[in-house]
Amino acid sequence: xxxxxxxxxxxxxxxxxxxxxxxxxxxxxxxxxxxxxxxxxxxxxxxxxxxxxxxxxxxxxxxxxxxxxxxxxxxxxxxxxxxxxxxxxxxxxxxxxxxxx
Length: 101
Known about the structure:
Layout: H1 6-21, E1 27-37, E2 42-47, E3 52-65, E4 68-70, E5 80-88, E6 91-99
Parallel strand pairs: 3-6
Antiparallel strand pairs: 1-2, 1-5, 2-3, 3-4, 5-6
């Protein structure tokens, strides 16, 4: 039987915990686009409860138009979208925007 040091087991356990918890940190908002500033990668969405949220698209953020890839320029005011984001430095950074088709 191979014996591992306790500290190594603890490091492995913590790594597994972080790997499992990381996807849970992302949040979602569904609503309509209120305004877009594509050159700044910023946009505002009014959610289904009437609350407005300001977002910034990550450098590697994805825009999905149905089952196709798109760009922020392809979206327009009034489009129904689902936003996947994380809060970083008091900003809501978007990893994916899905436009409802």
